[in-house]
Design goal:
By secondary structure, the chain is of the alpha+beta class. Helix content is 44%, strand content 12%. The chain has four helices and three strands. It has helices at 3-18, 23-33, 46-54, 84-94, and strands at 58-61, 65-69, 78-81. A three-stranded antiparallel β-sheet has the order 1-2-3, with helices on one face. A hairpin with a 3-residue loop joins strand 1 (58-61) and strand 2 (65-69). The longest helix has 16 residues, at 3-18. It is globular and about 40 Å long.
């Protein structure tokens, strides 16, 4: 892993952990930041919206990790772990909780 990849991973993991220790705290943090998203699409959820603002390039979020790329290649620029509170938020959001974080297109 390059120094740049480690920096991106570390910044993303720190940002994700700072969102909170439970799904409600994560939702409150995202709300304060104005992050909204679509249900049922991990790459369009409120967390993904915040991550796009954090790092230039593309990011793909899955239940357990986030992949960052600055251009399309077979290898990711960096891969960061998604903390349990964020994973629980994504499940709750997709299940209909936190309507205030739902973008108009998916409401």
């Amino acid at each position: 892993m390059t120094e740049a990849q480690a920096r991106i991973r570390d910044e993303a993991e720190a940002w994700l952990k700072a969102l909170g220790n439970d799904p409600d705290a994560v939702a409150a943090s995202l709300g304060r930041m104005g992050c909204k998203g679509k249900r049922g699409k991990a790459c369009s959820c409120p967390i993904a919206a915040g991550l796009r603002a954090l790092e230039e390039g593309s990011s793909w979020i899955a239940n357990h990790y986030v992949v960052f790329r600055t251009e399309w290649t077979s290898e990711p620029e960096a891969k960061a772990d998604v903390p349990p509170a964020c994973r629980a938020f994504m499940v709750a959001f997709d299940s209909g909780k936190y309507p205030e974080l739902c973008s108009e297109e998916s409401a």
